[in-house]
Design goal:
Strand content: 15-25%
Largest sheet: 7 strands, mixed
Structural class: alpha/beta
Distance between the termini: 31 Å
Mean pLDDT: 94
Bound molecules: 2'-deoxyguanosine-5'-triphosphate
Order of helices and strands: EHEHHEEHEEHEHH
Shape: globular
Low-confidence stretches: none
């Protein structure tokens, strides 16, 4: 007799293909359930907070939204945001906005903050944030036009207007920091927390 499908012990409160790809590649059993939260409203309430605190708060909001629906679930939430010289950038809403963002990034240092949390019921069991530094080279207008034509609409789903695993790598002179943080989630600390929670074999 077939046994009921084992319910994966972990819920990823995200629609992010990048985060799902990281967990899939790492062999982490999970179920993805995107959280419907108003990120912009939360960011407005946290306008003066440090970027890492905003990323952590958004991660908690996503995970808590799912945990409210399923009190037994262990829920992983994550968020990434980009700042350049103190100015925060969300995902571009149009080709034109992507070109504007890239024009501002040119020649400047980008900070990519990625946070992750684990929530069960009302409680946040674990939280972590990390920051990577990406030095954007001087970008010509012709390059920006070509880049946006090639990478749109994929970059409409990414903070910083780039996929590092695709043509986005051409934006940078130097990258300092964890590769997974750049991809959108501090995976190594997440795996450690999942071992502590018994989701993964220690
Ligand atoms: N493929 C790819 N995605 C990246 C890269 N850097 C950042 N991202 C993605 C990861 C996230 O999906 C997105 C950051 O936006 P958010 O943190 O708001 O997550 P998103 O709205 O995608 O999903 P979620 O809110 O978690 O349901 O940017 C990269 O280099 N490559």
């Amino acid at each position: 007799m077939s046994t009921a499908q084992e319910k994966p012990p972990l819920v990823l409160a995200s629609r992010s293909e990048s985060r799902k790809a990281m967990l899939d590649a790492a062999g982490v059993p999970y179920e993805a359930r995107p959280a419907a939260i108003d990120e912009r409203a939360i960011e407005r309430d946290l306008a003066d907070a440090a970027p890492e605190d905003i990323a952590e708060a958004l991660s908690v909001a996503k995970a808590a939204a799912i945990a409210r629906e399923d009190a037994a679930a262990l829920v992983l939430g994550s968020d990434s945001l980009v700042t350049v010289e103190g100015r925060r950038f969300d995902k571009p809403r149009s080709r034109e906005e992507a070109r504007e963002h890239l024009g501002f990034f040119s020649g400047r240092m980008m900070e990519l903050h990625s946070a992750a949390v684990i929530v069960r019921g009302e409680g946040c069991l674990w939280a972590h944030s990390d920051c990577a530094h990406l030095l954007v080279r001087d970008l010509s207008d012709d390059f920006i036009d070509l880049y946006v034509e090639v990478e749109w609409p994929a970059i409409s789903h990414t903070v910083g207007c780039f996929r590092i695993e695709a043509m986005g790598v051409q934006l940078f002179e130097r990258i300092e920091g964890d590769q997974f943080t750049v991809l959108g989630m501090p995976l190594l600390p997440v795996l450690g927390a999942l071992r502590d929670q018994g989701v993964l074999q220690a």
